[in-house]
Design brief:
about 0% helix, Immunoglobulin-like, four-stranded antiparallel sheet, 2 domains, elongated, about 230 residues
Length: about 230
């Protein structure tokens, strides 16, 4: 049987134009907003001042001579410190080097010069006062001495009782009051702390093992020469 072929016509559907669909992609972000916050720290200024050394000892300086030492003032705070004035409580000590109105920035130093020029024999003490806007303005302690070019020598008869020594007293009036100077074992004493032109009266007491004292000896009065 002969093959038979059939042809089927494909129908063509009309073209339909569809509208374009727009796709909107929405992406949501969570978490960091992207804003960076800054923090401001406020520091309270400090006003500090130190003196090194805080005490000056000049030892013995003869009348008519002088001795000089220094102390370093340092701003130990974070803010500037202004020194408004520096003064000494005794005229035997002369201060220089840091005039009033001196301003020290943080960590800065200035050298204070102190000269000891004794005006009388004997011990001298004083204090340097530093006025400033620091919360802890330091004070510097001062000490020095001037040995007298004169001395007073005392001798007395020994006690007839058993004693461990003698107290020596000195005053500036014949009838006292007297100030105790020293306890000595011998029957003699040299007073090196007298001042020129001054009149002194001395008495001596005997002291036993219980530190009981005898009555005063007869007074001895002398005037130190000038100069």
């Amino acid at each position: 049987m002969a093959a038979r072929f059939f042809t089927k016509n494909r129908s063509t559907a009309p073209f339909v134009s569809l509208p374009m669909i727009a796709l909107l992609l929405s992406v949501g972000l969570t978490g960091c907003s992207g804003v960076i916050a800054s923090k401001t720290t406020t520091t309270t200024p400090t006003y500090g001042l130190t003196a090194n050394p805080a005490a000056l000892s000049f030892g013995d300086v003869a009348l008519g001579n002088n001795s000089t030492q220094t102390s370093t003032l340092t701003n130990s705070g974070s803010a500037s410190v202004t020194v408004s004035g520096v003064s000494a409580s005794s005229s035997a000590f002369i201060v220089s080097g840091v005039p009033g109105g001196t301003t020290l920035s943080s960590g800065q130093s200035a050298v204070l010069t102190v000269t000891f020029k004794p005006i009388t024999s004997g011990n001298s003490t004083g204090t340097i006062t530093i006025n400033s806007n620091a919360t802890n303005s330091p004070a510097i302690a001062l000490s020095g001495a001037s040995p007298s070019p004169h001395s007073v020598g005392l001798t007395w008869s020994p006690s007839t009782s058993a004693v461990i020594g003698y107290y020596v007293y000195r005053g500036t009036a014949i009838n006292g009051p007297y100030a105790k100077l020293n306890l000595v074992a011998a029957t003699q004493f040299t007073d090196l702390s007298v001042q020129a032109g001054q009149t002194y009266t001395y008495v001596v007491t005997a002291v036993d093992a219980n530190l009981a004292e005898s009555s005063d000896s007869n007074p001895a009065t002398t005037t130190v020469p000038t100069p």
